[in-house]
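A common beginner's mistake is to predict each chain separately and then try to dock the pieces by hand. The better habit, illustrated here, is to supply every component at once so that their relative placement is modeled jointly.
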Amino acid sequence: MATTTKSITIGDSKMYDLNVIYWRTIALFFSDRDVDVKEVLAYELAPVPTAMFTEDGMRICKAKSTLKKSLQVEVSRRNAGDADVTVIDGSALLWTIHWPADGTVADFIDNVKTRLISYLSESDVYLIFDRYYDYSIKSVTRDVRETVVSRKHHLLLSTKLPAQKVFLSSIENKKQLNLLPFKELTEDRLFHLRGTNKHKLVVTGEDSCPIEIRMEERRSRYELENQQEEADTIIVQQVLRCAGEAHQISVVSDDTDVFVLLLHHYHQAGLDVPLIMESPRKERAIVDIKATLSKHSEIVENLLPAHAISGCDTVASYYGMGKGSVIKVLKAGYELSAIGNMDAPFQQVLDPATAFISACYGIKENTDMSHTRVWGNKNGKGHMSAPNLAALPPTNEAFIENVKRAHFQAMLWQNLNVNLLPALNPEEFGWKKDTCNRSLIPTHLPEDAKLVPDYILEMIRAAKEATLKEVRLEVANKPWLWSLLPEWLKLFTSSPEYQPQASNPFLGSRLASGGPRSLQKVSRRRKARIPAGAPAAMVPAPVPAPAAMVPAPAAMVPAPVPAPAAMVPTPVAVPAAMVPCSSAGPHSHGTVLQYHPTQPWFRVPVPCPAAMVPAPEPAHTAMVPAPVPCPAAMVPTPVPAPAAMKLLEVLEGER
DNA sequence: CTGGACCCATGCTGATGTGA
DNA sequence: TCACATCAGCATGGGTCCAG
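With all components supplied together, the output reads:
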């Protein structure tokens, strides 16, 4: 939609569409043959490594559950057997317990107790609540997930319950909701008598030491002491501790991380005790860990590192890389055990990580991510769409930061019992401290890394100046074109002046808070989050105008465009990305032109997406929207519109 | 919060169509 | 018959919404 505008103002910040910069750089490859593809792609070309970060922050793996779904071996409840130890993920439980609409906090906690008593009637229960530490490596994930701006409540037992969704979406509120039941469960004598007469209850909360309750007796379980923050790891640790005495263990959790951890440690410890994993929601599948393990014995060694490196709560995932393809690649056989090995030097961690992620991008046997970036085949394979910057593999520098994080996470996961946090400083593993919010922020790139090569910037700047002059002349010669201007001008007066900075093309973007916000798609939810200072109408408002002016890809093929032939000095073809497959563009079946079929810039029939950049050739005229636009052809398109971009350039120059 | 359902876009594969 | 075009089906993954 908004691909024709380079930037737009929301509130006080100026937003850029990252892909525009990318398209332009690709186009530069053709405007000047001296540009070295590999060298340029060694730079990020964007304010954030777009493969791993979005404008809102780190790209969190959305479909983590795919991993669990595709590996798990289900058993029916009837065949699941009766566990004598149940380990419960407290925060998952809280989401599934009835939330009385008109009740108080005490009512809710009563429901928690009732649920626990039903578990306690069958088996010993280990209940683990999440911990919320300052400077957590999970703070980014939490920030991303905190989708609704909700009020911070101060909870007392008598407090009337706020709406569940609103309430549980806030970290501060969740913290309290974890603390209150913990206090209640460990101190309510009546509950102890009713619930723990047959089986014991072990509750783990903020305190490093779990508390065991059996009837009137209450004692600290020092041997289970654990400093780890994540409930996932504590759950697995307690499962391992119980494995010796228990006859069957049941883990109540929905989390894919727990699933991966259980598989890993069950295998590592060589356990044999029946272990099932069930959801706090009764209707969901029950997973037999032992059966799952024997079914996937060939990949289980590398599953945990692969999960860490391909994206989890603390490690960015890569755009276009789902867990499905990760498993596929893993099954092809990759040795990743160095990731998470505390004794391995970093290079020994990086090499297999690079090879693995490259393989996920479709490049085999590789030890340099920048190589994958150039030759990876995920990007621009199609003939209908423009290449997407996010689909480009990350640069080596950005990738290394992510590998550090994955390594750190894998170390925590693999050493459940060791309190590593004092020994390991997250700041040496791809995070930096944000003292304002008392949180850790993942680093995008090393501080000294440049985003765009200097000479590319210079070329863009020089090309712009040269073109402006020519284009102005042409536009002046076309009265019908001028007639279009008022509408456009209206649009652009509302957008700030674009001045490419010689030092940083992304200046003014939201670098500090995670980069610019692409306006290609503004979700309803996201719109709701735009600060009050920016009227919501400002977001979509300017969009329809340029979109309507951009003809559909088919209409952009030079031939049917009603531009006078005289206006087209050279037979300029549109960039490959814009050529529908029915036209002259090479197809997947191969032509001589398909020199390196995976790369968009090699599929261009005639080397001239120069029209996309402010290039000396006034090729844009061929792309000017027809004076009598056919509404049907005027669909909004994600394809870059050279004419619009060019015209925009001119108009901005005019102001 | 999570997983799951759903929709959509993209891109691959193989079968079939078409013109020289 | 060949080389390519076209099409349908399928797999994958992103985005969104929802239940509990």
